[in-house]
Amino acid sequence: METSELLYQQTGRNLVQLIENGTLLPGQRVPSVRRWSVQQGVSVGTVLQAYRALEDEGWIEARPQSGYYVRRLLPSHVDESPHATLPPEPGIAPCRNEAVPVSLHSITLQALAASNRADVIQLGTAVAGPDCLPTQKLNKILVQLIRRSPEAAGAYQFRPGNEALRVQIARRMIEAGCSLGPDDIVVTVGCQEALNLCLRAVASPGDTVAIESPTYYGSLQIIEALGLKALEIPTSPRDGVSLDSLQYALETQRISACLFSPNFSNPLGSCMSVENKKRLVEMLAEREIPLIEDDTYGELYFGDTRPPCAKSFDKKGLVLLCSSFSKTAAPGYRIGWVAAGRWSTDVEHLKMTNTLATASLPALAIAEFLSNGGYDHYLRRIRRAYSENVAWTVRTICQHFPSCSKVTRPSGGHVLWVELENTDALKLFHEALAEGISIAPGPMFSARGKYRNCIRLNCGFRPSDELEHALRRVGELAAQLVEE
Amino acid sequence: METSELLYQQTGRNLVQLIENGTLLPGQRVPSVRRWSVQQGVSVGTVLQAYRALEDEGWIEARPQSGYYVRRLLPSHVDESPHATLPPEPGIAPCRNEAVPVSLHSITLQALAASNRADVIQLGTAVAGPDCLPTQKLNKILVQLIRRSPEAAGAYQFRPGNEALRVQIARRMIEAGCSLGPDDIVVTVGCQEALNLCLRAVASPGDTVAIESPTYYGSLQIIEALGLKALEIPTSPRDGVSLDSLQYALETQRISACLFSPNFSNPLGSCMSVENKKRLVEMLAEREIPLIEDDTYGELYFGDTRPPCAKSFDKKGLVLLCSSFSKTAAPGYRIGWVAAGRWSTDVEHLKMTNTLATASLPALAIAEFLSNGGYDHYLRRIRRAYSENVAWTVRTICQHFPSCSKVTRPSGGHVLWVELENTDALKLFHEALAEGISIAPGPMFSARGKYRNCIRLNCGFRPSDELEHALRRVGELAAQLVEE
């Protein structure tokens, strides 16, 4: 009995090792029960027992008529498993209930400057590797467009922007639970312009905006540039912004708007539950407070279904939904969009005054990519690729980072948030950059310069020896910094 | 003697008629002296006498070894000539020395909405006709770029923007008297974003910005959106902003910045003299007041040389020079730029927070167009085309508009400003639009809604029967409105 237990445990552990070292990637089929029993020299029954245990622990999943596969989502509660070898998740960080003006950290500028350098391994910027972008497909579309409508590329497309694109966006958003018409949508220069216009529409200099903590540094920069104040709300790396904390903030502070990313926030990759999204929208509706929803990563889910947007629960037009194709198709096209609810007209006017129009050719190309179905096909591929990249990066961190490091378990997107122990992320940033590796240090993601022991890592590139080496070096440097 | 005088005058008048009705366009060769003497049945001496008189009056010019040509620039002082048949120029309009907040005129929005309609003849928007844009050339460059660097189109080009483009811009600006390096320049989403960023860098909500009167409505919209106040400075349709009036304003008002277009302002087409540009920069330097210089039309001069920018006289980094390729290459590319002097770093940061980056492919295409020489060749062609369009439009107005109408004599750009007598431009706008013709009514160009008897007409299209019909209808409608 004891021997049999050990046997199936050992059999399972051997498979987990293959997953952990990246031989078997998320989504891949694991060896059949029969084959593994032969390879391991154990009975079919022992392998079956081992696979079922691994299934319970979340490592693999059975697919009917097909066999066992490595799970796409990392085991959420792996720490509770006796086989746990992955680093634990970071917890929710407390925040002071006080709004502060934002001031551009020089570290943010340095980190961004590094992102322009071709000689640097980009673990610091949330960009996709060349093989994770539909470059060939889009280029083909561009050439076809130029041939078919030679004058369209050079002509203005005034607000609210290309109609075919707005139709396609409205259609896509049905899957996210949103009932939008093309006329509800304004095309923008990436999500960055969309967030800008929304904040300008709903808030005035000096006003307070509630944000997730940590949050996307680009949002912080907008808040600074517009002379607004940021109120950081504690945010769970798994479930998103804490509604209890938000409730308390709403009761004690004068908040002009919330700027949240309920689906796969950057940098945490957190995703609010459907119930929490609904409750969030209701809480804000009670007080007539606008919610600017950044859904940039919403379509990059690892699970089976597209998580709904908070906008889908919006009955009063208080949710201003922003997104872009920068993370899902082509960053350099600079095509984003906004459905600004009751601020639609204001945002449309602001768009006109801000940049007059969005570049025509990229918008036409995205519209075509969406309508001819290439986009969906590509998204299916890229979701798998990112989930594999994220899983591989977590395992690589597990191998090479100090053992006390904590790592998020995002269920979408392509960034990871790592909490180090007794390590100054700013020092780590400089030392890594000196070796040609960029990382994003935690203070970039906080209005108060918090998270000095955290870093964000990009998982937009496919696993490679170069990448593993870079991650190992970051881990080694982090270990050295702990010792100092 | 009297007969001979009459003869040469008649001979000359017959030629002027051919110019006025568009048979002979600016830049075209007029019939040789010998041929005209045969056609007119007069002596060679009489034709020579006639041609010399027309030359004195500014209708034609002699080119050595080549013959006589229709002048590109409209006769400036034609009203002083006994043969004057062109409408007079509008004068300088007085302005109240008081800053006001701007509020978006619904008429501006209606006019802009009309500019999106394919079924409307676009006399109201400052756009170029398809045969005045280098569409084929740019499309060829786009396809080559996509083939040569397939990944570049989709990749981010972070601030300050594409380097090859910034190098090319810096080189071009030597001709405008400016010593800029590529690092002085930030690529923007059209000139609109450039003006936005500059105003945000130098002024805060409530501050006063001095502007030309009339001025580009896009600037007014930015001033409104940023919560600034506008102070209109009287501006000569020929020579630009009145420096005496500006001096008085500087002495009596607190002005945070000037936003002027010294080269071919929109809508007047005025061009400041070199001396006045120099004096303007010195006046502002004395008070350390920044000048935002909009040079959008600077390369579209009709004369022989590129007028210098005010920036060329800037010794203190107080001039923020903005321009774009929207009027000279491709409006839909949305490629502009700014050299912001001592505010360079601020503007670069604001660019990042505003739109993160500019679309890559259009920037790459413009850089290539500039560097391979195609741009200069095309500019030479387009300058001639626009000067011909403008001259043709002035003559058409002369034929079909009420005789008391006044018209500007721009020496660059492709817009005309028409002052009507006792005619409500807003009514005219609505009546023309009902007939499928858009015009830009004067109040769009004033913070105070002035110029109700003025309209701006686009000359970006080549002369055509359709265009002549549209202009005639606008003239007839204007005449009817006078009678009412």
List keywords for this structure.
homodimer; globular; 17 strands; 484 residues; four-stranded antiparallel β-sheet; nine-stranded mixed β-sheet; alpha/beta
Concise overview:
The structure is a homodimer of 484-residue chains. Chain A has helices at 2-20, 33-40, 44-57, 106-114, 135-148, 163-172, 190-202, 217-225, 243-252, 274-287, 344-355, 360-371, 374-400, 425-434, 465-483; strands at residues 60-63, 67-70, 100-101, 121-122, 185-189, 208-213, 229-236, 240-241, 257-260, 291-294, 319-324, 335-339, 406-407, 415-419, 437-438, 440-441, 454-458. By secondary structure, chain A is α/β, with parallel strands linked by helices.
Say how many strands of chain A there are.
17
Outline the low-pLDDT stretches of chain A.
76-84
Oligomer: homodimer
Proportion of residues in helical segments of chain A: 40-55%
Shape of chain A: globular
Largest sheet of chain A: 9 strands, mixed
- Alpha-beta content class of chain A: alpha/beta
Largest interface: A-B, 55 and 55 residues
> Whole-Å distance between the termini of chain A?
49 Å
Radius of gyration of chain A in whole Å, from Cα?
A: 23 Å
| β-strand amount of chain A | 5-15%
Kindly state the mean pLDDT of chain A as a whole number? 90
Annotation field: number of helices of chain A: 15
